[in-house]
Amino acid sequence: MVKRIILVTGPARSGKSEWAELLAEQSGKPVIYLATSRLDPDDPEWQGRIDRHRIRRLPSWSTQEVPVALTAAIFQGTTSGNPACLLVDSLGTWVANLLEEDDPTWRAILDELMESLRGLKEGTVIFVAEETGWGVVPAYPMGRTFRDRLGDLVRRLGAIADPVYLVTGGHAVNLSAIGSVLPPTQTLEN
What does the record give as the function of this protein (predicted)? Predict the structure, then answer.
């Protein structure tokens, strides 16, 4: 069996989730959709976004809601003896769910995720991640923390994923085919 880590990144409403779903469908493996969002019945707009994602999923796919325990869900889904294709949508929401963790705790969570991915022996994991660092620097500390944590995570995943896709304007570009991986960087410190 072979392991495969795929990263699909891009701005909001670019088509990145649809591209990741197409890749999952084409994998030929059972698909487990790891949804990182938290349901909020008091936010109908958020519920509408979740519903649109649900409607697109194939009936044969299983869904797990994993707002925090992502590493454990990935480990479980890739060690079941029947390697699946795990689709994680999205890393930005996962980072937001853990935003109140202090920096040492966050670094430990991130290191645990990266170590578990390096140790995968089989299965496919497709990550969907938002690109948030292309705009202005947020004027408030929590916004800067979110942007920096997500940016660091995406860069670290990009170093071990193959392929890495950038989806923008409804087009998927295989960055692995046209780009070069930068050397590792230190985890961001505040």
Answer: Catalyzes ATP-dependent phosphorylation of adenosylcobinamide and addition of GMP to adenosylcobinamide phosphate.
